[in-house]
Amino acid sequence: MKRNFILRVSFLITILFLLILIIFNLNQNNKELIEKEVVKEEIESSNVIKDVSYKSKDSSGNEYILEASEGVIDQENNNIIYLTSIKAIIKLKAYNSIEIYSNFGKYNIDNFDTIFSKNVIIEYLDNIIMGDYLEFSLNKNLMTISRNVIFKNNKSSLKADVIEVDIKKKDIKISMYEENKKINIKSLN
Questions:
Q1: Cα–Cα distances in Å, from 182 out to 41, 131, 174?
Q2: Are 160 and 149 in contact (CB under 8 A)?
Q3: How far is CA 113 from CA 116, 134, 142, 178, in A?
Q4: What is the DSSP letter of 168?
Q5: CA contacts within 13 A on the Cβ side of 40
Q6: CA geometry: angle at 72 spanning 58 and 35, to 5°?
Q7: Exposed site from 81, 136, 156, 164, fewest CB < 10 Å?
Q8: CB contact at 8 A, 101 and 86
Q9: Beta bridge partners of residue 84, listed in sequence order
Q10: How far apart are CA 123 and CA 146, in angstroms?
């Protein structure tokens, strides 16, 4: 009987020892996991830039200034930055400046191409163009605004699917996606 009691106590002590060992091991693994999450979070937050500002000039002397409240560098491609609360100014040497605003964007550091999205507003002279999406290429001297496009000035207002602006030639092309749909123009006079 005494031997049976000793075996049971030994068995219980062994189980308690194993449980303590397992709990200690799990606790160490959790600490390592937490440390890895903190390091990962620090790496991700290190890709965040506050008060972003880029400036570039082309060979003709035109200047492109881009400012954003925040930028996040793409981890797959360091040349791409995702932006928030954007303001861009295109200072044309022989023409008035163009200002662009949007909630979000994607900027390519290599070629200065920028995609503006959500609440896009373009202001130049007395004209305002609004839409949801704008592709801007400094190399091509082209801005293409699409999705819910509205063009306004002192004399008229129009709705279209796409407006392309050739910055160098100062030409504007207004179009619809479907041939049977027409551009809606209203005179404000």
A1: 51, 18, 10
A2: yes
A3: 10, 11, 10, 27
A4: T
A5: 6
A6: 150
A7: 156
A8: yes
A9: 70, 104
A10: 15
From the number of C-beta atoms within 10 Å of its C-beta (0-12, 13-18, 19+), residue 163 rates as: buried
pLDDT tens-digit map of 16-62: 555 565 655 555 544 544 444 544 444 444 577 888 888 888 777 77
Q: How many CB atoms lie within 10 A of CB 166?
A: 13
pLDDT tens-digit readout, 135-165: 998 778 889 999 889 999 888 889 999 999 8
pLDDT for position 180: 81
Beta bridge partners of 81: 73, 107
Q: Report d(CA 172, CA 115) in Å as an integer.
A: 19
Residues 107 and 81: beta-carbon distance below 8 Å: yes
**Alpha-helical runs (H) found in the chain:** 2-46
Instruction: Look at the chain and count its residues.
Output: 189
CB within 8 Å of 49: residues ≥ 6 apart = 70, 71, 72, 73, 81
Q: Which residue has the tokens 């550091």?
A: 109
Token duo for residue 10: 């030994």
Please give the CATH number for the structural domain made up of 49-187. Answer: 2.60.450.10
